[in-house]
Amino acid sequence: MNYSIIIPVHNEEVILEHHVERFLLELPEVAQRVLSEIVLVENGSTDKTLAVAERLASRYPDLIHVISLTRGSYGEAIKQGMMAARGSHLSILECDFLDSSFLVSSIERFSQDDSPLIIASKRHPSSIDRRRITRRFLTFAFNLMLRLILGYPGTDTHGLKSIETKLARRLCEAAITQDEVFQTEIVLLAWRWGVMIEEFPITVEELRPTPLSVRRRLPMFLQCIGQLRDSLNRYK
Question: How far apart are CA 227 and CA 215, in angstroms?
Answer without folding.
Answer: 20
